Amino acid sequence: MNAYITSSSPLSVYKAYLNQFQRDFTTFLEMRSEEMVYSGRMVLTLMGRNILDDPSYRDCCHMWTLLPDSLRDLVFEGLVSASKVKSFKMPFYDPSEEEVKEIIRKEGSFQINNLEAHGFDIGHSNRDFISLQLHKAKTGQREAGCISFKEV
Q1: For 120, which of 76, 80, 103, 135 is 20 to 30 Å away at the CA?
Q2: Of 28, 30, 67, which is closest to residue 46 (Cα–Cα)?
Q3: InterPro entries of this UniProt entry (predicted)?
Q4: What is the pTM of this model?
């Protein structure tokens, strides 16, 4: 009953999400290239992943972990059918830097002037519970203040 890519997802699910992201991002770049002025620049901010070898690794998607639990609760309470939950998928794909670069190169309208990746801690680090509670506000401030950007 996962609504997004997880470590238990088959390779075919990963490939389907990747193919859809490639099509969507390519279309996005094509449309933006028509709007750009000569020598214009574009700054993009994307959520991505740092792990290249395991596309199911969710280093950026902790926000999705509560969704399947909530959907299971709705099924348990009889408010939603299990078949509807099983058919629901989050259309979210977190590309690696290499995947983003490859799509931009293949599309051909833009060149990458600068590409930076920024990590952030959303409270899932190895801190113990008491320490996490004491630093909850700081963790929230770090999360809210974190911006990743890609310039193409």
Answers
A1: 103
A2: 28
A3: MeTrfase_7, MeTrfase_capping, SAM-dependent_MTases_sf
A4: 0.69
Q: Which long-range contacts (CB under 8 A, 24 or more apart) does 12-20 make?
A: 14/55, 14/56, 17/93, 18/55, 18/93, 18/99, 20/91, 20/93
DSSP label of 9: S
Confidence of residue 140 (pLDDT cuts 50, 70, 90): low
Q: Is 103 helix (H, G, I), strand (E, B) or coil?
A: helix
Domains and CATH numbers, the chain: 11-60+91-151 (3.40.50.150)
pLDDT: which is higher, 109 or 46: 109
- What's the distance, CA 35 to chain centroid? 26
